[in-house]
Amino acid sequence: MITTAAAASSRLRRSVFLGIDVGTGSARAGLFDEQGKLLGSASSPIQIWKQGDCVEQSSTDIWLAICTAVKRALSLSNVAGEEVTGIGFAATCSLVAVDSEGQPVSVSRSGDTRRNVIVWMDHRAIKQAERINSCNSPVLQYCGGSISPEMQPPKLLWVKENLQESWSMTFRWMDLSDWLSYRATGDDTRSLCTTVCKWTYLGHAHMQHVDEKNSRDMETCGWDDDFWEEIGLRDLVDGHHSKIGRSVAFPGHPLGCGLTPDAAKELGLLAGTPVGTSLIDAHAGGVGVMESVPEAEAKESDDDAICRRMVLVCGTSTCHMAVSRSKLFIPGVWGPFWSAMVPEYWLTEGGQSATGALLDYIVDNHVASSHLANRAASQNISLFQMLNNLLEQMMHDMDTPFIAALTADLHILPDFHGNRSPIADPKAKGMICGLNLDTSERQLALQYFATLQGLAYGTRHIIEHCNEHGHKIDTMFASGGLSKNSLFIQEHADIIGCRIILPRESESVLLGAAILGAVAAKKYSSLREAMKALNAAGQIIYPSQDPRVKKYHDGKYRIFRQLYEQQLSHRSIMAEALS
Question: Superkingdom, according to UniProt (predicted)?
Answer without folding.
Answer: Eukaryota
